[in-house]
Specification:
The complex is a heterodimer of chains A (262) and B (300).
Chain A: E1 3-8, H1 15-27, E2 32-35, H2 49-55, E3 59-60, H3 64-71, H4 83-98, H5 102-109, E4 115-119, E5 122-126, H6 145-155, E6 159-162, E7 169-172, E8 178-181, E9 196-204, E10 208-216, H7 220-229, H8 234-242, H9 254-259
Parallel strand pairs in A: 1-2, 2-3, 5-6, 6-8
Antiparallel strand pairs in A: 1-9, 4-5, 7-8, 9-10
Helix pairs in contact in A: 3-5, 7-8
Chain B: E1 8-9, E2 16-20, H1 49-61, E3 66-70, H2 80-88, E4 93-97, H3 104-116, E5 121-126, H4 132-139, H5 143-156, E6 162-166, H6 174-187, E7 194-198, H7 205-209, H8 221-224, E8 237-241, E9 244-246, E10 258-260, H9 263-266, E11 270-271, H10 275-283
Parallel strand pairs in B: 2-3, 2-8, 3-4, 4-5, 5-6, 6-7
Antiparallel strand pairs in B: 1-11, 8-9, 9-10
Helix pairs in contact in B: 1-2, 2-3
The chains are: A alpha/beta (262), B alpha/beta (300).
Bound molecules: iron/sulfur cluster (2 copies).
């Protein structure tokens, strides 16, 4: 029997996309849903994300944002050095920290750094950035296959699932193993489309591991107007409306940056 | 302090492999160069394409994540284009250049190779001021104009070079200088400039420009306690020269930096007892690209 799981990457307060993703995944008949962390950032009304996760019993991995918000740190631990990126990162962080209830912050502190699953005899490892560091960026163009094979050996995993970078990609590894960055629900993938992305992973005893990236339409207009009402920066709203990143560009490698507009 | 108490970095994994591909041979002789590169420096020999290929194999078996090419000036190497293309088959590549000797034909070939493969090819171009007046006293007469035409050529070939500048100004002047930089780059058609600022390392040529490290500029056992050593390049990288494998590109000229003939041998602890180590301690992973630099204190 094939088992299918839906994996949602960073939510970044985009509860409207999360709601749409849950409905979409249910319609597609997945067996289980997971979230790979970073519930906060960027969008409006942080507290609206939590009830959805609880209601649908979605297991969540702790992201760097969750760690910071949970512990009330000063920043999101993305480690930008560019002053403009830092400026915007701080706005979204401070907003999220101020608007996340203490109850939800306590919940963030309970999240595990990784989730391990055995599905159809295959070992899955769900993490935020990488299995060795919560805030490690694993981009398609700067992550060698030899490194991913090494990680899979080290972790004894057949499939590693991560997020953190904001752009989805996947790669087959040796011995029928794989790595998949599931993307994020929080903002578009810097591809000029308003949809956001999540991943459906299928594990079949015979054909092995496969994955599909799902573009997801949601009410981005409503999100934009709520962001405006919350006085979030116009730069963030532009990203939601156009699908092009306007901030956090420093950390993009050359290839991923070239695909984008800015 | 007894020798056993000196802070030691234990490498966790070979994330980045550096190549001192032209040894210390450079067409320039910048006053702040942290290795004493100049046109006649023959301390190290050039690495051949075959040398590089065998190191790529060796590194891939260890699970290496990315490659950096430096010198000297890598583009003085007659085989640099095939070397970079060979490396791109194994992983992402960054080349550190002064931008003054680039040729359109090379960039065309590299652009094709990058486009056909999975991995990024990053160019880091060193320029130390936004005008000839601020740059040339450090890097040499006429180098600003030459480096900027290198940047222009890169941009015309659809690369997005990272301009790296060594901070030789005060904190107060920084935002103004960065703004001027951005302006100068936009002027030559680089619409989305990427800039990386580096601290000065008071060794090599820079030692005589400013001053070397004082004896107390060292990482002490107290400073080391609780420090996240993943911040240091030597925690996750090694550099290859014609002599073997060294701990990091910064200390290449120091005899104790040579750790072995093979990469596996070289992945052993290193005593961070140099003045430059103190700068690394203060500023974190100064040599990595922003897309792969480990962020401060974020280890779990
Ligand atoms: S700083 Fe760079 S360009 Fe200047 S001499 Fe040293 S290696 Fe050459
Ligand atoms: S100079 Fe920096 S990278 Fe090199 S050994 Fe010292 S601390 Fe490590």
């Amino acid at each position: 029997m094939t088992t299918r799981i839906a994996c949602f990457g960073g939510i970044y307060n985009n509860y409207l996309a999360l709601e749409a993703a849950i409905a979409d995944a249910q319609r597609r008949g997945v067996d289980q849903m997971f979230c790979l962390g970073d519930l906060g950032a960027f969008g409006p009304h942080p507290d609206r994300v939590f009830p959805l996760l609880h209601q649908h019993e979605i297991q969540v991995v702790r992201g760097n944002y969750d760690d910071s918000i949970g512990r009330g740190l000063n920043d999101c631990q993305c480690g930008y050095t560019d002053p403009r990126d830092n400026h915007f990162a701080q706005i979204s962080y401070d907003y999220t920290l101020q608007n996340t209830s203490s109850e939800n912050r306590a919940y963030l502190c309970t999240l595990p750094a990784e989730i391990r699953l055995e599905i159809e005899g295959r070992q899955l490892l769900l993490c935020h950035g990488s299995p060795r560091r919560t805030n490690e960026f694993l981009w398609e163009s700067t992550t060698s296959t030899s490194f991913l094979n090494w990680l899979a050996d080290q972790q004894q995993a057949d499939l590693i699932l991560a997020t953190h970078t904001g752009i989805h990609w996947g790669r087959e590894l040796s011995n029928r193993r794989a790595f998949v960055n599931v993307g994020v629900l929080g903002r578009p993938a810097n591809d000029g489309r308003t949809e956001v992305w999540y991943a459906i992973i299928s594990v079949d005893p015979h054909s092995g591991i496969s994955w599909q990236f799902v573009p997801l339409e949601y009410d981005f207009r409503r999100l934009s107007s709520e962001m405006t009402a919350q006085r979030l920066p116009p730069e963030f709203i532009e990203t939601i409306q156009t699908g092009w990143w306007t901030t956090c560009l420093e950390i993009l490698p050359a290839k991923e940056r070239r695909w984008g507009l800015y | 302090m007894p020798a056993g108490d000196l802070p030691q970095v234990v490498p966790s994994h070979l994330d980045a492999l550096w190549f001192q591909v032209t040894g210390l041979r450079c067409n320039l002789a910048c006053h702040h160069c942290f290795v004493s590169c100049h046109p006649k420096n023959n301390t190290f020999a050039f690495l051949s394409l075959a040398d590089v290929e065998s190191r790529l194999e060796e590194a891939a078996a260890l699970g290496v994540k990315e490659f950096y090419f430096t010198g000297g000036e890598p583009f003085l190497h007659p085989q640099i284009v095939p070397i970079l293309i060979a490396a791109l088959a194994y992983g992402p590549v960054t080349v550190l250049t002064n931008g003054t000797v680039l040729k359109a034909d090379w960039l065309r070939q590299l652009r094709d190779a990058e486009e056909q493969g999975i991995y990024s090819l990053e160019f880091r171009v060193s320029i130390d001021g936004f005008s000839p007046e601020s740059n040339d006293p450090i890097r040499g007469e006429g180098t600003f104009v030459r480096a900027m035409s290198g940047v222009k050529l890169l941009v015309e070939h659809n690369f997005l070079p990272i301009i790296t500048a060594v901070r030789t100004w005060s904190d107060a002047a920084e935002s103004h200088i960065v703004a001027e930089f951005v302006h100068a780059l936009k002027e030559i058609g680089y619409a989305r400039p990427r800039i990386k600022l580096l601290p000065t390392l008071q060794i090599g040529a820079e030692e005589s420009r400013s001053c070397g490290y004082a004896d107390h500029d060292r990482i002490t056992a107290e400073m080391w306690a609780g420090f996240d050593s993943t911040q240091l390049v030597c925690e996750n990288s090694r550099v290859v020269s014609d002599r073997g494998v060294h701990v990091c590109p910064i200390l290449i000229e120091s005899p104790d930096s040579l750790l072995g003939k093979t990469l596996a041998q070289s992945l052993r602890p290193f005593e961070v007892s140099h003045g430059a180590c103190f700068t690394c301690y203060q500023f974190g992973s100064i040599c990595a690209n922003p897309s792969s630099a480990p962020a401060t204190g974020k280890d779990r």
